[in-house]
Design brief:
Strand order of the largest sheet: 2-1-4-7
CATH class: Mainly Beta
Strand content: 35-45%
Shape: globular
Distance between the termini: 54 Å
Oligomer: single chain
CATH superfamily: Cupredoxins -  blue copper proteins
Number of domains: 1
Number of helices: 2
Number of strands: 9
CATH architecture: Sandwich
Largest sheet: 4 strands, mixed
């Protein structure tokens, strides 16, 4: 098989989802109602601006630490204050309506986000 044909086959496999070139995330993150990546100075929900998180009332929010150091997931309005080690997850239930509630990493100043639950 020449290189052009092999390249086209790989392109078709990647774009069809048969061969995933992205990071493999834990199953609980992939299946969460809302998945939020936590890294060195960001909280990132797929499809959202950095540091903005949106969820529906009752959703399970799973935070996954894709970084290389521990962080915290601290949400005072939901009484959440959990350490999240690298490559680990923290689950939070969106148990009440919130408007721009603070999501903070208390270990690193300036590392925060706003959570809206409707």
């Amino acid at each position: 098989m020449n290189k052009l044909v092999l390249g086209l086959v790989l392109l078709v496999l990647i774009t069809s989802g048969c061969l995933d070139s992205d990071t493999d995330y834990p199953e609980e993150f992939e299946q969460a109602d809302v998945g939020v990546l936590v890294g060195e100075m960001h909280f990132q929900q797929e499809g959202m601006e950095a540091d903005e998180i949106e969820a529906a009332l009752g959703d399970e929010i799973v935070f996954y630490n894709e970084g290389s150091v521990e962080h915290t997931v601290t949400i005072p309005e939901l009484d959440v204050d959990e350490i999240i080690e690298p490559e680990e997850t923290v689950k939070v239930e969106a148990s009440e309506e919130l408007d721009d509630a603070l999501v903070d990493c208390t270990l690193h100043g300036g590392h925060d986000a706003e959570l809206t639950v409707e």
